[in-house]
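Design a sequence for this backbone.
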């Protein structure tokens, strides 16, 4: 019985998702150039929606978003000229919930973003 209670408690803790709702500001180094991107996340259960904006690629909608524990994943589509490109984000939320480290998979390889919660 004791083992069952411990397993149940662990299951509940694993199921709890980090709360990333709100505004975030991220930076990345792209070939020696600093880039900035903002995120506005809305969380409903484990579903993540919202939008992101950068001066380089403009505004994009967050799609296919989910959060499980401290891991968040979503996709955005950016338009570079006449070519839409899907970017897959995978992030790890810090223990205090104030930072997210993202790895972005795209056609040109991976890019690392570090985001900090603004509000």
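Sequence:
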């Amino acid at each position: 019985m004791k083992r069952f209670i411990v397993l149940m408690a662990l299951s509940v803790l694993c199921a709890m998702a980090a709360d990333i709702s709100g505004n975030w500001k991220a930076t990345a180094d792209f070939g020696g150039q600093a880039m900035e991107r903002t995120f506005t996340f809305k969380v409903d259960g484990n579903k993540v929606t919202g939008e992101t904006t950068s001066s380089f690629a403009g505004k994009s909608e967050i799609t296919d978003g989910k959060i499980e524990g401290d891991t968040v994943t979503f996709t955005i589509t950016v338009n570079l000229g006449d070519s839409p490109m899907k970017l897959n984000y995978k992030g790890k939320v810090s223990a205090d919930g104030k930072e997210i480290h993202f790895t972005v998979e795209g056609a040109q390889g991976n890019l690392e973003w570090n985001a900090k919660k603004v509000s």
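Residues 46 and 67 are 5 Å apart (CA to CA).
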